[in-house]
Amino acid sequence: MMDYIESGDVKMSAILVIFGGTGDLTHRKLIPSLYNLVLDKLLPEHFAVVCVGRRDKTLEEYRKDIKESVSRYSRNKIDEDVWSKLQNMIYYYQFDFTDTEGFGGLKYFLEDIDQKHKTEGNRVFYLAVAPEYFETIVHGLQIGNMADRQGAWSKLVIEKPFGKDLKTARKLNNKLIEVFDENNIYRIDHYLGKEMIQNIMVLRFCNLIFESIWNNKFIDNIQISLTEKLGVNSRGGYYEHSGAMRDMLQNHIIQILSLVAMEPPVNLKTDSIRTEKLKVIQAIEEITPEFLKNNVIFGQYGKGFIDGTPVPSYREELNVPKDSNTETFVALKLHINNFRWAGTPFYIRTGKRLGSGSAEIVVQFKDMPNILYLKDTEMQEPNLLVLRIQPNVGVFFQFNTKDFTTHHGIVPTKMDTSYETPTQGNTPEAYERLIYDILRGDATLFSRWDEVEAAWTVADQIIQYREQKKSQFPNYDSGSMGPVKAFELLAKDGRKWWNI
Ligand code: BG6
To answer: Of 165, 173, 259, 277, which has the fewest beta carbons less than 10 angstroms from its beta carbon?
Structure first.
């Protein structure tokens, strides 16, 4: 693992308190990640996990449930010895966290665990609950004097969505900083924990060949595509108030964009990196309704086929109104107005129920002059550098060579270092890395408040524009690659989306 942390003697002993202990995230990601951290010997010796939930369960029942989830979702098979180590660290605490009084009881419970596991009073409070409970829980922690205690540290981990617009995000943040110091707030964007996202900075700043041409003089355009085959399935209720803009663009895409476009930080300290990322978001060209008219396309999926299986339209999904105007797809052109990027467009797209599911960053380099070998070529095959985030992980590069099979002509050669996960790669799940970093106190892979604020400022303008517009939905079939207009967006610039 890459080590960004400066000091080697970070005190990691702690109790991880998970609010939402019976929820989906805990079962599918958090507990399986903890299992793998135990397996990889990355958890501190003095450590315990207290899962808080409203359901009535005995500790035995709870441990049995989560063992099933580990068997189902862990990237490594269950080993009984490792499981028993983890199981002995896990506790279930039943209480309704909307009852502020109940936090006193939780406090005593945690203090008992401190004695038993020598966790020194340190706490990580992980909010794996629906966003409407974020402020309530933080308030409860404040009332119960659990956030700010002498001689021990307390951290807060908060899942997305962080607000539903700039205004609500600010309100939420004000509550958080009333109780926790900004340095102890970890705003999760699970994309930042993905191997290839962490690799963006390494590729750029450890390879002369890339960084020296990473600018508007050599790069024609950059495409960021996060496409999914999945529909909203059972999450219609949440998604209806979110849409692709809030679900993917405001967070994951803007974070990726900032890593791709940032200037080299002065060092690898958390704040130096975050400051450079922030500058990218702040340099995004002003997004006026006039600009959006020509440069943003929204879509919503109709019925269709995914891998040959028929699937319903978005409006037929559970908890989605029949006349929903929510976008399940967005494609957009953006400009970053600074010396490095002015004139090089960034094309972004994300959507559900598309024909292929992948996450990729495609860097298209400028054409060569049409002389010498390329004299008679109408359309050059450009140099492409593709950072493949998933399902394959790695780098793909396309460059031109002589066609030695026919002894004449120039052909694009493809060099692909990416490997398919999980069969070959077994890369750590994003959450493993993130939990490990929280314990070490390294917030580099989490969003700082001013980044979130700047991202909302951008996203809000696009969302407001969309909300004023009644769209003709559905406008793409499930299994296609989105609305026709998303292709026209690039075609009118003489470009196309690359599906590598
Ligand atoms: C989540 C979104 O943040 O990211 C989901 O809420 C989306 O709608 C998911 O499916 C995609 O993440 P991944 O890691 O599966 O690409």
So the answer is: 165
Pocket probe mutation, ligand 1, options 158, 190, 361, max atoms within 8 Å of Cβ: 190
pLDDT at position 419 is: 82
Å from CA of 248 to ligand 1 middle: 7
Pocket test for ligand 1, best of 192, 246, 248 (most atoms within 8 A of CB): 248
Q: Has residue 421 been placed in a domain?
A: yes
The CATH number given to whatever domain includes residue 151 is 3.40.50.720
Q: Residue 149 pLDDT > 80, yes or no?
A: no
Note whether 205 and 135 are same-domain residues.
no
In this structure, are 300 and 430 located in the same domain? yes
Please tell me the chain's helix, strand, coil percentages from 3-state DSSP, rounded to the nearest 5.
40, 20, 40
Ligand 1 in contact with 247 (CB < 6 A)? Answer: yes
Ligand 1 pocket residue status of 432, Cβ below 6 Å: no
pLDDT at 379: 86
Nearest CA to ligand 1 atom 13: 191
Task: Tell whether the model's pLDDT for residue 422 goes beyond 60.
Answer: no
| Catalytic residue flag (residue 335) | no
Q: Note whether residue 103 is domain-resident.
A: yes
User: pTM of the entire structure?
Assistant: 0.94
For residue range 440-464, what is the model confidence (pLDDT) as tens digits? 999 999 999 999 999 999 999 999 9
Q: Which two tokens stand for residue 369?
A: 């002059």
How many whole angstroms from 430 Cα to the centroid of ligand 1?
12
Cα 226 to averaged position of ligand 1 atoms, centre (Å) = 9
Asked if residue 140 and residue 200 are part of one domain, the reply reads no
Q: What would the DSSP string read from start to end of 40-73?
A: TT-S-SSEEEEEEESS---HHHHHHHHHHHHHHH
The mean pLDDT of the chain is 93
Q: What is the largest CA-CA distance in the chain?
A: 81
Q: Alpha-carbon distance 31 to 65, whole Å?
A: 11
pLDDT of the residue at 425: 44
* Catalytic-role residue among 117, 252, 407, 408: 252
Closest ligand 1 atom, CA of 160? Answer: 3
**CATH code (residue 342):** 3.30.360.10
pLDDT tens digit sequence for 278-297: 999 999 999 999 999 999 99
Cβ of 195 below 6 Å from ligand 1: no
**What is the Cα–Cα distance from 214 to 280, expressed in whole angstroms?**
14
Q: Provide the pLDDT for residue 308.
A: 97
**Which residue segment(s) compose the domain that 410 sits in?**
192-491
